[in-house]
Automatic annotation (TrEMBL):
<protein>
    <submittedName>
        <fullName>SDR family oxidoreductase</fullName>
        <ecNumber>1.-.-.-</ecNumber>
    </submittedName>
</protein>
<dbReference type="GO" id="GO:0016491">
    <property type="term" value="F:oxidoreductase activity"/>
</dbReference>
<dbReference type="InterPro" id="IPR036291">
    <property type="entry name" value="NAD(P)-bd_dom_sf"/>
</dbReference>
<keyword id="KW-0560">Oxidoreductase</keyword>
<dbReference type="InterPro" id="IPR020904">
    <property type="entry name" value="Sc_DH/Rdtase_CS"/>
</dbReference>
<comment type="similarity">
    <text>Belongs to the short-chain dehydrogenases/reductases (SDR) family.</text>
</comment>
<dbReference type="Pfam" id="PF00106">
    <property type="entry name" value="adh_short"/>
</dbReference>
<dbReference type="InterPro" id="IPR002347">
    <property type="entry name" value="SDR_fam"/>
</dbReference>
Length: 281
């Protein structure tokens, strides 16, 4: 029997990329999945016909929508066993070039939204642990949480905040049967860059040519599913060698990054702009 068989799992951001691959992976293993996205039509087209999937049009940066998502899972299945915190946004460029609304939006979705969705789900996950032996929180983070480098400075900060939340939460709930995991990918082939710059694709056809370079999202989904079956809380990287990013916090590597990267801001700005323009034009 699959490790996710018959479990009720909420997955945020399920219309594309890592979220969509995760929904597909979990339902293949027999899970019942409740997933959300801001574009309800795209979500329904992507995963709405899969067996055991319930779709909800919702924005995880919105408090009322977070409540609706959890309530939808309870109304549909009467319980909640796990939450995958996947919805997120990024923005590539220097901090001084960021538009006024980008920083609040990233913090609201990447950090506040993840923490608040967890808070709403936690009473039900603790019930799952008491009655069925376990509950799980899986946060999709990034290697950027460990090595904060331009042009992803603010995105990195939100993921570092998420990592801190996960560590603290583990110390609250581990002895009560809830596992808390982070999955930290390197670059992934998704719509992440186009979405973060206001050009969210409306269909799979529209997404062609807009995908960032990187590993397949299915590789990340596999590790998320592994976490949901792990006997302990885990922090994993995809691919595994990307864990070397932790060295960015170690002296003297961090000092070298401070000095070296700050001398290359002109090149970093140009490279970021070129990468964005290639995916939004």
């Amino acid at each position: 029997m699959s490790r996710t068989s018959d479990r009720v799992v909420v997955v945020s951001g399920g219309s594309a990329g890592i979220g969509r691959a995760t929904v597909e992976k979990l339902v293949t293993g027999g899970a019942r999945v409740v997933t959300c996205a801001r574009d309800g039509d795209r979500l329904a087209e992507a995963v709405g016909t899969l067996p055991g999937v319930t779709t909800v049009t919702a924005d995880m940066a919105d408090a009322a929508d977070r409540v609706r998502l959890v309530e939808a899972a309870l109304a549909e299945h009467g319980r909640l066993d796990a939450v995958v915190l996947n919805a997120g946004l990024g923005w590539a460029g220097l901090v001084e070039d960021m538009p006024d609304d980008v920083v609040p939006g990233m913090v609201a979705l990447n950090l506040t939204g993840a923490v608040e969705l967890t808070r709403l789900a936690l009473p039900h996950l603790l019930t799952a642990a008491r009655e069925r032996g376990r509950g799980d929180v899986v946060a999709v983070s990034s290697v950027a949480a460990w090595s904060q480098v331009p042009p992803l400075t603010v995105y990195s900060a939100t993921k570092a905040g998420l990592a801190g939340f996960v560590k603290g939460l583990r110390r609250e709930v581990t002895a009560r049967g809830v596992r808390v995991h982070t999955v930290n990918p390197f670059f992934v082939r998704t719509e992440w860059l186009a979405r973060g710059h206001g050009h969210a694709p409306t269909s799979d056809a529209d997404a062609r040519g807009r995908l960032s370079r990187g590993i397949a999202p299915e590789r990340v989904a596999d590790r998320i599913a592994d976490c949901l079956g792990s006997p302990w809380s885990r922090t994993v990287t995809v691919p595994r060698w990307a864990g070397a990013a932790r060295l960015g916090e170690v002296t003297p590597v961090n000092r070298l990054l401070d000095l070296g990267l700050s001398r290359q801001t002109g090149r970093i700005r140009r490279a970021a702009r070129q990468s964005v323009e290639a995916r939004v034009d």
